[in-house]
Amino acid sequence: MENAVKAPGKRRHGRELAVQCLYQVDLTGDASEEALAGFWETQEDVPPATRRFAEELIRGVLEQRAVLDEKISRYAEHWDLERIAVVDRNILRLAIYEMMFRNDIPPVVSINEAIEIAKKYSTRESGAFVNGILDRIKFDLPRPARTASPS
Questions:
Q1: For residue 19, what is the DSSP state?
Q2: Would you say 123 and 55 are in contact if contact means Cβ atoms under 8 Å apart?
Q3: For the chain, which domains are there?
Q4: Does the pLDDT of residue 2 top 70, yes or no?
C-alpha cells in the first residue's frame, strides 16, 4: 500500500463538495433548493457528517455572499471579481466565510485547506494567489489566527 492515494478527510471532502456546489451555483446563477438538491443527486456515498458540514458551508457562503465578495474585491488588488477564475473565486468565498463566520475553525486551517483545494482543482498559480489574498485578510480578523474562538 506504499503508493496508495490517501482519501481526503471528512472536512476536506466536505470543503471540496462545497466548492463544487458553489462553482455550479456561480455558473448557473441558480441557488434554489431544487438546484442544490440536484447537486446532491450527483454525489455518491457521501457520509452524512461530511454532507452536513458541506451543506453548512454552502448555505453560509450563499447567505454571506455579498460580504464575502466585498472582501475579495477589497483585497484582490488589480483584479475584478468577475475576472477571477470561477473556481478560485469560490474557494476564496468558502475560506473567507470560514475565517469570518466559523469561529470553530482556526483561520490558518481555512487558509491551508483553501490552498490545497486550489492546487487540486485550479491552476498551478492558484495556490499562491489564494494564499496571498487570504493571508492579508487573516491580519484584519478580530480573533487569533491559530486557534478556534470560544462560541
A1: H
A2: no
A3: 10-138 (1.10.940.10)
A4: no
